[in-house]
Amino acid sequence: MSMQDKTVIITGGSRGMGQRLALKLAAQQANVVVNYRRDDQAAKDTVAEIEALGGTALAVQADVADTAAVESLVAQSVERFGSIDVVVANAAASAFKPLSQIHGRHIDKTMSLTVQGFLDLVRLTTPHMNHGGRVMAVSGWDSFRVLPGHALLGAAKAAMETLVKYLAIELARDHITTVGVCPGPIDTDSFRYYAGDAWEDYAQQWLAQTPSGAYPTPDEVADVMAYLVSPQSAAINGQTIVVDGGLSLATMPIGFGQD
Question: Which of 64, 141, 145, 239 gives 20 to 30 Å between its CA and that of 210?
């Protein structure tokens, strides 16, 4: 499996799973465009790690919810690397509230970033995929499992998964394939923040319900993501792959996410 000289844009690429994927691809000598929204230092650190692993990197600040910013992101990527092979829509943000507390501004923010941003990325990057390419949408467990406070983001992620199916058909004539990846609970800063002080209790319950006896580590999820953007996975098209060790086959712990 090689991504040598392939150019990959990763939104939200300076932290979390986006960063881990960037480092996996760097080890294969890929050209990685690290998109980020605010944290300049995190982006610089990620670029340095990519280069230390043998990859080539470009950090581009852009709010993916802003179409003009996405246009700039793509233009800078093409100017630096000439073409684009893979785009990974990983950036996400939302208001983690019950639906009764959701207002228009929350909907606009979540959908603009997750749905509109995804479609803007596809529309603007695919003309630069000169020899076919790959589109990846990073979904989440809340797209099909009920997690308190995640209704709005879950709806947005479910929309992304539907778009993956339609894009597989619509982009086929240009030899571009699409795939979604849906990680389950993983030990990242964002998941620990969501679980709060109850993280250890939840982790033990999830582990007990995972058929494999261990839910995936962040590195294992990144390995799956790296495979799914590689040419070797092109036969997987229009599908969203759940990576949770089989945990979603079991029932969520009662009271998860509730005080």
Answer: 239
Name residues whose C-beta falls within 8 Å of residue 66's C-beta, 6 or more positions apart in sequence. none
pLDDT at residue number 251: 61
Give the Å distances, CA to CA, from 30 to 144, 192, 205.
33, 30, 38
Query: Going along the chain, which residue ranges are E strands?
Result: 7-10, 31-36, 56-61, 86-89, 133-138, 176-183, 239-243
Q: Are the C-beta atoms of residues 8 and 56 closer than 8 Å to each other? A: no
Look up residue 30 and give its two tokens.
């890929």
Q: Token pair 């529309």 is at which residue? A: 123
Per-residue pLDDT, 174: 95
**How confident is the model at residue 3, as a pLDDT?**
94
Q: For residue 93, is it left (φ>0), alpha (ψ between -120 and 50) or beta?
A: beta
pLDDT above 50: residue 79: yes
CA distance linking residue 48 with residue 107, whole number of Å: 36
CATH architecture of structural domain 7-243: 3-Layer(aba) Sandwich (3.40)
- φ, ψ for residue 244, nearest 5 deg: -145, 15
Of the candidate ranges 9-13, 87-91, 152-156, 254-258, the one whose mean pLDDT is the lowest: 254-258
Other beta carbons within 10 Å of 118? 27
Q: Which two tokens stand for residue 237?
A: 């098209």
Q: Which amino acid is residue 102, in one-letter code?
A: I
pLDDT of 52: 97
